[in-house]
Amino acid sequence: MIRFISLRSARLVAASILAFAPAASAATFHFEGKVGERIDANVRNWLCRAPVANPAMLEMFALRDRLPPPNLVDWAGEFVGKYLISGVQAMRMSDDPCLRATLSNVVDRLIALQAEDGYLGPWPQKDRLLGHWDLWGHYHVILGLLLWNESTGDARALAAAQRAADLACKIYLDGKRSVLDAGSHEMNMSSLHGFALLYQKTREPRYLALCEKIISELPKAGDYLNTGLQGVEFFKTPRPRWESLHALQGLAEMWRITGDERYKRAFLHHRASIRRFDVHNSGSFSSGEQATGNAFKEEAIETCCTIAWAAMMIDALAITGDPRIADDLELTFYNAICAAQHPSGDWWTYDTPMNGRRTASQHTIVFQARPGSPELNCCSVNGPRGLGMLSEWAVMDISNRLTLNYLGPMTFSNIVRVTGNYPFEDAVRIETKSALAIRIPGWATNAQVVVNQSRARQQAVDTYFQAAAGDRIELKLNFPTWYAAGEREQAGRVSLYRGPLLLAYDQKHNPFDDAGIPTVDLNRLEVTAKPGDWLIADLPDLRLCDFANAGASGTYYRTWLRATNFPVASPP
Q1: Do the beta carbons of residue 244 and residue 227 sit within 8 Å?
Q2: d(Cα 412, Cα 414) in Å, to the nearest integer?
Q3: Dihedral of the alpha carbons of 87, 72, 182, 289, in degrees to the nearest 10
Q4: Residue that finishes a domain, picked among 441, 476, 511
Q5: How many domains does one find in the chain?
Q6: Could you give the percent of the chain with pLDDT greater than 70?
Q7: Residues 490, 469: one domain?
Q8: Over the stretch 319-345, which tens digit does the pLDDT of each residue have?
Q9: Using alpha carbons only, what angle is made at residue 93 by residues 88 and 98, rounded to the nearest 5 degrees?
Q10: Given 348, 375, 393, which residue is the final one in a domain?
Q11: Residue 101, Cα to own-chain centre: how many angstroms?
Q12: By residue range, what is the domain housing residue 234?
């Protein structure tokens, strides 16, 4: 496991049992600084143009019963749903009229292409919801339509989602067919999450009955509930692929619906297991698209896998209120997610390796594209969700007290205003019109807090500082340089961090190539930081940059660096 060693060694039930809850759907965010630039670039250079530049996202639905038969990847039905999820989340953070108009057109066309029986996929009538990854595709479409309905009040979107779910109920509740019969269990059984969310929205008993049927069949597939209760590590479960994380989210929703603690225990166990054994130094998840128990392995780290991991962490943060999970979300956001997006906003990666080169997903997984839609693939439509999910964890709510997890410059619904240049500079200023709990990161061992210009006081890490309405807060976080020590394939190496930012060697900033990278002396971690694309950090013989921009120009980069003078381990 990677040890992040710092300088310190139904929603029916949810209102009463959730630690945190997402801010109200009507809440608005305005993110500034470098992150605001990334969000704007994503809206302008991808979300607003993607449906026009890649029309097969929707037209594959129109051609499902035409000749020749569709030649699609099994998961093609997910593309429009993933795009819609990302777009609606982005709409909470952008007032660009192009975005809303584009999403409205996508929803209109999607609803128009729904079959009379409620089918919302790209496969011929004889195959509808019976195989491929069709239930999985419907899960993403249902979630996208639910978010659009919640954001706009569009009743047609909710009705379309229900018609699709009703078809699934007709096939898998009214008949003798098992969800297992659909195959691709990690994917199709993850529809549990979508049906649970739809039940909470509508309280339609059949949707809950379908959830219960899927859970009854899980022991013959991923067995996530039993393995979680038995303490089996996630990478040792029968189905440790990344898609299973969405089924785990379904368990979290079942706890919210029923209050049954078994669902919560299983979900939180698997979240902790993934964190211990399968989260890489960038906060990303998966090796070769699944959990392996080895976070040091240099296999493909798929963007979709990291998005699923971030979504799971948001659920875990809501359930527990644990600020350490917010620390993990921050690590994943600034590093894995921002590195998966090219700074231009034009493209997303499929694989964002710890060491190597960054490549556009439309090059790496071009086999997923369709004629006339060269950029269409799972990661190009799903990656933007990593930015959009900021609207779900940056500010959360508990008992009429807002909780601030994100410390970068932003405005939240004219209630909370954060200024400064975090995470590049360590001073954060916060003004709030509401009672506000403010996260103090775990690495900020020398954090100081000033309230209304009073004397500075030391603040414990991994806590929430409690501010009152009308307070003006100043945080001085005193960024440390810290490291994670490598094991297995990365033994004898370290990853260096400044605050929440992973640092990387990049050919662009150094006259020597990979073989010439000097060994890092852990007794001489004097880092001089200055502005760069995001950040430049100079060691005595080596220039590093932030991982989010490393390799963005096509150069080779490395985050695991040879090191010497490791501290002697303390005796047990």
Answers
A1: no
A2: 6
A3: -70
A4: 476
A5: 3
A6: 95
A7: no
A8: 999 999 999 999 999 999 999 999 999
A9: 65
A10: 393
A11: 25
A12: 30-393
DSSP state of 489: G
pTM of this structure: 0.95
**What tokens appear for 36 in the block?**
């605001």
pLDDT digit string, tens, across residues 188-200? 999 999 999 999 9
CATH number for 123: 1.50.10.20
- Judge whether 560 lies within some domain: yes
**φ and ψ at residue 241, rounded to 5 degrees:** -70, 165
Residues in the chain, pLDDT under 70: 1-18, 24-25, 399, 456, 568-572
The string of pLDDT tens digits covering residues 354-388 is 999 999 999 999 999 999 999 999 999 999 999 99
Q: Strand 535-538 to strand 543-546: parallel, antiparallel, or no bridges (unpaired)? A: antiparallel
Q: What is the pLDDT of residues 44-67, one digit of tens each?
A: 999 999 999 999 999 999 999 999
Please list, residue by residue across 55-85, b when 16 or more beta carbons sit within 10 angstroms of its beta carbon and e when fewer do: bbbbbbbebbeeeeebebbbbbbbbbbbbbb
Distance of CA 25 to the CA centre of its chain: 19
Residue 317 falls within a domain, yes or no?
yes
Distance CA 312, CA 476 (A): 30
User: Which residues have C-beta within 8 Å of that of residue 101, sequence separation ≥ 6?
Assistant: none
Q: Could you tell me if 192 and 247 are in contact, meaning their C-beta atoms sit under 8 angstroms apart?
A: yes
Are 99 and 160 in the same domain? yes
State both tokens at 83: 């795009």
* The pair of three-digit structure tokens given for residue 142, joined into one six-digit string: 């249902």
User: Same domain for 455 and 498?
Assistant: no
* CATH code of the domain containing 403: 2.60.40
Q: What is the mean pLDDT of the chain?
A: 93
Asked if residue 325 and residue 259 are part of one domain, the reply reads yes
